[in-house]
Design brief:
Layout (H helix, E strand, L loop, with lengths): L20 H23 L9 H9 L5 H19 L9 H11 L2 H14 L4 E8 L2 E8 L10 E8 L6 H4 L3 H11 L3 H9 L3
Antiparallel strand pairs: 1-2, 1-3
Helix pairs in contact: 1-3, 2-3, 5-7
This protein binds manganese (II) ion.
Amino acid sequence: MTVQLQNLPYAENALAPVISEKTVQFHYHKHHAGYVQKTNELIYNTDLENKSLEEIILTAASDSSYQTLFNNAAQVWNHQFYWQSLKPAASPVPEKLKILIERDFGSVDELKNQLQAKGLSQFGSGWVWLVTENDKLSILSTSNAQTPLTNGNQKPLLTIDVWEHAYYLDTQNNRAAYLQNVINNLLNWEFAAQNLTGDK
Ligand code: MN
């Protein structure tokens, strides 16, 4: 077994009431764990078995015969990054990140507005991301399992899962309510700031 199911960085009920314990349980133990299991099945007894998750994703992304492996391995990485992008209690944006946000978006509120809009406009399943690209912050969305990890110019800072399984038990089809609640209450700005420089 190469690919591990990383522990959640908080208790399963820690994100409630924005994201219920039931949603976290299904999302983590069924969806995320399912991607881990499928990835391990697909790499079993192959050259990829002892590679890192990042290496598996980059290899799979470069060859369409690996589409199923890419989808599952990238979803493992995206979910690890998503759980770390959330934090039970809102905290202020660290100064070094705030300076860049104000430079590139005008204000933290405007960044939040654009995250909301990008998450809403992603048609079907996918992810919304805050990334740095060529030393500038930007917001983008990806479909299904697509991830900025495979774009060498883009460094992810934060992500929000906009697959229906991320919110359907809590807000049914209302993605806007989920996004608004997550953006205003759960984003881990310290994690985003750490990802700017890679320091921990
Ligand atoms: Mn998900």
